[in-house]
């Protein structure tokens, strides 16, 4: 198990606590990874009590057995396992901006503490300052004090820098765990193994063999109940400098010196630092209009709750990035993400160059396109690799085939909600899967020209249920390429 500690959750009544943290703690308890000395202290500005919070959280846990829409849907909740977690939950009312809340916390807390900021981003700075000023981030003896910060971390380069500076006044970089939940995904973590533990891949994972790379995070959902958040955020800020850049860094980084957190984070930061600032002329910006998604009518973005009728916020972003280093110079990385598309699909496609041998160029034999290797991140989890082979028959005719591996079939381990590893790592002090200040700032720096350019003009409209705006297709077609189809 992880060392005994108290997990203080700011925003204990919120959605993140219910939907992700509690299921993750339940799974950790089930796996025997929580120490008997583990405690949870929920802090929220609403009135509640130990009993009421336990009752609420028990109800939500039970609702997951009926709700099949989220990541966590067990057949039943094991009473003993949930009892272990539930019995450790306490509540404290607290205003995140009131020093007295922190003084009260100080009275209750000793030893190892992980402070989890499951609160709106506007409180990140204030909570860390509250903790620091109350002396709650001082580590004495072996006891650790760590702070987990959710995204979005800043809303552009300047605000991310300011937030980093503000929190780093209160504690040391190694005490801060900036979460990017994509790094909690097994399929994202596995990229490191796929790339560096397979002799047949590492030699070809470079510009001599790779024509381009596509990174896609397509969603069928709209903004749901998050109109207010999304109006201030948009697809670019919501997904690109954080989630997609974390994938980009895993795909592009050099082999780290070791599996130590700092070596891995150095390798990722070096890759992100080599990304050239995005060019607004090589990007696409879209917003969904009414349409049909999987047979169901869907409203346009401007009709959603808490969204302005003339909103210019993008719900789709595509961009071309270049990386100036020995491995990737000249290889474009195309990134795209959007809501209300026809398919839910998060994947990386490595598009290899076609063979240069003239052997198969004769009429009717080919074509022999470049191989495509697709690292399927969500919801399908696995790898699809395309091959050119000979079609069975008397003549040499080429055909396309695909091999497919699925994590769920190859391994029997229970699927996780993604936050188990992140929480466990934080309790054990492994920062590998968390973002360091330099990587966050590097992500913002790379998209800064788009943030600037997109302050004016209109996003291009695309019907809900489609593949996105036409300009996203043009972005790659101009280079003589085409996105993999979203189906
Ligand atoms: C979140 C974004 O960080 O990631 C959401 O705020 C998005 O808008 C979500 O839907 C996607 O995550 P996942 O794990 O569902 O692919």
TrEMBL record:
Pfam name, any one: G6PD_C
Catalytic activity line of the entry: D-glucose 6-phosphate + NADP(+) = 6-phospho-D-glucono-1,5-lactone + NADPH + H(+)
Binding sites annotated in the UniProt record for substrate: 181, 185, 219, 238, 339
Top-level lineage group: Bacteria
Residues annotated as domain Glucose-6-phosphate dehydrogenase C-terminal: 192-483
Binding site for NADP(+): 95-96, 151
Enzyme class: oxidoreductase
Protein family according to the UniProt entry: Belongs to the glucose-6-phosphate dehydrogenase family.
Protein name: Glucose-6-phosphate 1-dehydrogenase
Originating organism: Methylobacterium jeotgali
Gene: zwf_2
């Amino acid at each position: 198990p992880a060392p005994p500690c108290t997990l203080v959750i700011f925003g204990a009544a919120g959605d993140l606590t219910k939907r992700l943290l509690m299921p993750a703690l339940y799974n950790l308890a089930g796996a025997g990874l929580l120490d008997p000395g583990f405690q949870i202290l929920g802090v929220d500005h609403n009135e509640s009590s130990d009993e009421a919070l336990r009752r609420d959280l028990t109800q939500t846990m039970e609702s997951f057995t009926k709700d099949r829409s989220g990541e966590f849907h067990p057949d039943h909740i094991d009473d003993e396992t949930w009892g272990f977690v539930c019995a450790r939950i306490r509540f404290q009312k607290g205003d995140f901006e009131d020093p007295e809340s922190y003084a009260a916390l100080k009275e209750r807390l000793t030893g190892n503490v992980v402070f989890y900021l499951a609160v709106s981003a506007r409180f990140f700075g204030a909570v860390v300052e509250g903790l620091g000023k109350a002396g709650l981030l001082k580590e004495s003896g072996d006891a650790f004090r760590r702070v987990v910060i959710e995204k979005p971390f800043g809303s552009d380069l300047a605000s991310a820098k300011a937030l980093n500076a503000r929190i780093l006044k209160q504690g040391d970089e190694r005490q801060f765990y900036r979460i990017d939940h994509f790094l909690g995904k097994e399929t994202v973590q596995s990229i490191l193994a796929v790339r560096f533990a397979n002799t047949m891949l590492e030699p070809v994972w470079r510009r001599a063999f790779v024509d381009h790379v596509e990174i896609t995070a397509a969603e069928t959902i709209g903004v749901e109940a998050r109109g207010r958040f999304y109006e201030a955020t948009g697809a670019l800020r919501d997904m690109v400098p954080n989630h997609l850049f974390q994938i980009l860094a895993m795909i592009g980084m050099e082999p780290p010196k070791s599996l130590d957190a700092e070596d891995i984070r150095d390798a990722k930061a070096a890759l992100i630092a080599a990304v050239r600032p995005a060019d607004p002329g090589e990007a696409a910006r879209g917003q969904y209009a009414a349409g049909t998604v999987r047979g169901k009518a869907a409203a346009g973005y401007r009709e959603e709750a808490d969204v302005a009728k003339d909103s210019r916020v993008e719900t789709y972003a595509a961009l071309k990035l270049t990386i100036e280093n020995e491995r990737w110079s000249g290889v474009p990385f195309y990134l795209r993400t959007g809501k209300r598309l026809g398919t839910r699909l998060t994947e990386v496609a490595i598009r290899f160059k076609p063979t240069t041998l003239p052997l198969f160029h004769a009429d009717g034999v080919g074509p022999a396109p470049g191989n495509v290797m697709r690292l399927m991140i969500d919801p399908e989890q696995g790898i699809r690799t395309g091959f050119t082979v000979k079609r069975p028959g008397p003549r040499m005719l080429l055909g396309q085939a695909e091999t497919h591996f699925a994590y769920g079939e190859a391994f029997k381990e229970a699927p996780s909600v993604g936050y188990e590893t992140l929480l466990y790592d934080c309790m054990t002090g492994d920062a590998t899967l968390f973002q360091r200040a330099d990587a966050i700032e590097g992500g913002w720096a790379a998209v800064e020209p788009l943030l600037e350019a997109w302050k004016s003009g209109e996003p291009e409209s695309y019907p809900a249920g489609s593949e996105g705006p036409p300009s996203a297709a043009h972005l790659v077609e101009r280079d003589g390429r085409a996105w993999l189809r979203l189906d």
